[in-house]
Amino acid sequence: MRVLTIFVAAITLVSCAGTQERDLESFSADAVEGINLPEYTQEDRNDQELKAKAAFIYTLLYNTVELNTHRMNGETENQVFVHDSGGEAVYDKNGNLVKNCENMGSYNYAHYKKEPLLHFAVDIIPWLRWGNCREDTTTQAQRVSAYIKDIADALEISRSSEVGYFLPEGFSFYNSAQNQTIAFFLTALDHSGFNLYNFVLNGQASEENRGEFLQLLEAGFISNLKMPNKLSKRDAVTGAPS
Known about the structure:
Layout: H1 2-8, H2 18-31, H3 48-62, E1 79-82, E2 88-91, H4 116-130, H5 140-160, H6 176-190, H7 196-203, H8 207-224
């Protein structure tokens, strides 16, 4: 059964150094300022339903290749290359480095494969809120729509994988960035009352259910982001640090 796979599959991933991780935790808190997110505790590790949802979200983000997010404004043939450090380079259909604000490669504080929950908290949420730099012409709705397309691709990879859904070794709800990412997804779906637990266990075989999940997740992301448009502590939110 998939529910068993969720709890036994784990991999060891590289973690940030202590000081850097504390700095990122602080920045992740700034990134979600104004969004009403629940805070989970270590006791929640015993909540099998919550853990199943967390494993699903973790695996989904682990498989999310950010391609559509660098194909804004009709640049549908851009290709993205990710360095081991997490930094990105984007090239257009002619092999030229993309330098426009909306689609250029960004500096990432966390690698999407090594630390997917942290990456979402410190790199994706700020981008969804503020864009790639001050000159970004895209709207929040456009950025959310592009990211959901990448999530849709990740869903197909995740549900067909023999590994199943998993959490990293040493996963802890004490990590506030991990809390924020999981809470962001669950709060987004709570807006509609979507039963994510049932979807994880039984609902993904249906194309209709998958479509509903993606549609409601997109609407929930937009609802989460409806807040005063504050400036980030960085000049370029997902670009090089200020």
